[in-house]
Design a protein that fits this description.
Distance between the termini: 90 Å
Largest sheet: 5 strands, antiparallel
Number of helices: 8
Radius of gyration: 25 Å
Mean pLDDT: 94
Structural class: alpha+beta
Bound molecules: heme D
Strand order of the largest sheet: 1-8-7-6-5
Strand content: 35-45%
Shape: globular
């Protein structure tokens, strides 16, 4: 009897203890299986803005110390609805299910799992040369106007479509890799390079009768930028010679042979922040890269370190690097019209850095507004202000234009000469674009939380510097659809590109991979819809790149 009493007491005590433990157990604990699933979603949807180590960049810090204080419910609401500051509404848009939204709210309260490392040998093991340069055509094998091809990223299906810009016919669809991000052209325009979020570079030869992949390599685990060597002059001829990949993880610059993609050199970009010499930043990632036309040099922006590296590739195995202190959280940017200054957004500092590539120094740092996001920006030759360069913002409803001509128009140089207001509240603009032959600059707004604002294209008169028209995407491309019991909603127009003559502007309707979407071509003079490029293959079109304009950096 006594034994039974003791046993019962012990049992109740241990049950109580286990209940107490359960009661204390945080609601964010996940099984190994859940961690695995959430890690993949995090990599696909979140790491770009918040970082693999979650220290924050375009998006805020998501380390457990901070997220656990916020709690599961608050995190879930942010992931579902997004924020006015540019966080996409991943739940409301149908990109994440309610279960996945909850999973992610819990995941980010756990410690980040350690990301994988790489090496030049590992990169070499992924290199595939399908057609060596000597077996490729010696002249274009097509009668099409290949310089007016448009390469369209089909993001979520891992493909690139090549469309004839003259006839609007599909020329070929090429398999590239997971979540292709951008395309860039070689100096001659003949080669198109794609970079995927998985770090895979694909080399496409546009001289083939049907452009196709001639080489590929996985340069890193996570990447956003690729460019090529574009210099020819007294320091050598580097046209079409090298390519460069900017890696997010591991944070590095990888130089490749431009014709074969053979990996040549890897340089880590982990570094000390320009303004915090006592803080080592493992995750100092490579954001935008552009090739200088004046020097055998790439302008490489190191996001978290806040440095611009002028990377001399003339001796690629022994590169000379000049590190310029700039501003933290560098992201995207483009040349001014003279191609002497590179303007890059330090988006979490609300600033744009102007880099003088001739004198190799930072010319100015200009405050523009809440989270500038220029894409490549838009260059305008304005009757009063002279040459100006404009950027939109993720976090506010303005487009800021900066004077870029210190010699001809010193009074406006490196000042915001005009802030153009987009109608309605909130930012969410991702890209602006123009062409020297166009009267207009175009702006999208795919990350604005308001569906109506998301669906519009804003047309800005380049002389008046104000919105003069709003183009509407035909309703049929924006209708939500239910597929396999899941409601999928297209996001709306994103990214612009002109044809070679600059008399048409193309825009992608950013959808869901479960439903075909469209690429719309507007007449730049009449602003009328000229053609909707449709087909079962048009799935998640995002960035689109005209060969001539990308080759020559016309924007
Ligand atoms: Fe991009 C350019 C990074 C999300 C479409 N994007 C860039 C560049 C960087 C970058 C660093 C500049 C490259 C260069 O010029 O060398 N992008 C990131 C991110 O880190 C971010 C915020 C989150 C992520 O996880 O990737 C991100 N980007 C997106 C998108 O969601 C977009 C709209 C669709 C997609 O494909 O993912 C998108 N980014 C683009 C496009 C450009 C780009 C179309 C090129 C603009 C141009 O005109 O050159």
């Amino acid at each position: 009897m006594m034994k039974l009493k003791v046993a019962t007491a012990v049992l109740s005590a241990s049950l109580l203890a286990s209940f107490a433990l359960k009661a204390q157990e945080p609601d964010w604990k996940l099984s190994d299986e859940e961690m695995k699933k959430a890690s993949q979603i995090y990599f696909d949807r979140c790491a770009g803005c918040h970082g693999m180590l979650r220290k924050g960049a375009t998006g805020p810090n998501l380390e457990p110390e901070r997220t656990r204080k916020m709690g599961t419910e608050a995190l879930k609401a942010i992931i579902h609805y997004g924020t006015a500051g540019g966080m996409p509404d991943l739940g409301a848009s149908g990109e994440l299910t309610p279960d996945e939204t909850l999973l992610m709210a819990k995941f980010i309260q756990n410690d980040p799992p350690p990301p994988p490392e790489t090496s030049l040998d590992k990169i070499k093991a992924t290199w595939k040369l399908y057609i060596p340069p000597e077996k490729r055509p010696t002249k274009p094998m097509t009668n099409r106007n290949w310089k007016n091809y448009m390469g369209v990223v089909l993001r979520d299906v891992g493909k690139v479509a090549i469309i004839d810009g003259d006839t609007k016919e599909l020329v070929n669809i090429v398999n590239t890799g997971f979540a292709v991000h951008i395309l860039r052209m070689s100096a001659s325009g003949r080669y198109m390079y794609s970079i995927g979020r998985d770090g895979k570079v694909t080399l496409i030869d546009l001289w083939m009768e049907k452009p196709d992949v001639v080489a590929e390599v996985k340069a890193c685990n996570d990447a956003r930028s690729v460019d090529t060597s574009k210099y020819k002059g007294s320091k050598g001829d580097f046209l079409d010679k090298y390519a460069v990949v900017g890696c997010y993880w591991p944070p590095a610059i990888v130089t490749l042979d431009g014709q074969t993609l053979e990996p040549l050199k890897i340089v880590s970009t982990s570094n000390y922040a320009y303004d915090k010499p006592n803080e080592f930043i493992r995750e100092a990632r490579v954001a935008s890269i552009v090739a200088s036309h004046h020097n055998p040099e790439w302008v490489i922006n190191i996001k978290e370190a806040g440095q611009v590296w002028l990377y001399d590739y003339s001796d690629p195995l022994n590169p000379k690097i000049k590190q310029l202190n700039a501003e933290r959280f560098l992201h995207d940017g483009g040349w001014d019209s003279s191609k002497r200054y590179f303007l890059v957004a330090a988006n979490m500092r609300n600033k744009v850095v102007a880099v003088d590539t001739e004198e190799e120094k930072v010319a100015a740092i200009v405050e523009t507004g809440n989270k500038p996001h220029p894409g490549r920006g838009a260059n305008i030759d304005h009757p009063k202000y002279g040459p100006i360069w404009c950027t939109g913002h993720l976090g506010e409803n303005t487009i800021a234009c900066i004077g870029t001509d210190p010699k001809g128009h010193p009074e406006y140089a490196w000042k915001v000469v005009k802030k153009i207001t987009l109608p309605g509240d909130g930012g969410g603009n991702l890209f602006v674009k123009t062409h020297p032959n166009s009267k207009y600059m175009y702006a999208d707004r795919p990350l604005n939380p308001d569906k109506e604002a998301q669906s519009k294209i804003y047309v800005i008169d380049k002389d008046k510097l104000e919105v003069v028209s709003e183009l509407k995407v035909p309703e049929k491309y924006l209708q939500p659809k239910t597929i396999n019991g899941k409601e999928v909603k297209p996001r709306g127009p994103v990214h612009f590109e002109f044809n070679d003559k600059g008399d048409e502007v193309w825009v992608a309707v950013w959808g869901n991979k479960l439903i075909p979407s469209a690429i719309l071509v507007f007449d730049d003079k009449t602003l009328k819809l000229k053609k909707a490029i449709e087909g079962d293959w048009v799935r998640t079109p995002t960035g689109h790149f005209n060969v001539l304009n990308t080759q020559k950096d016309i924007y």
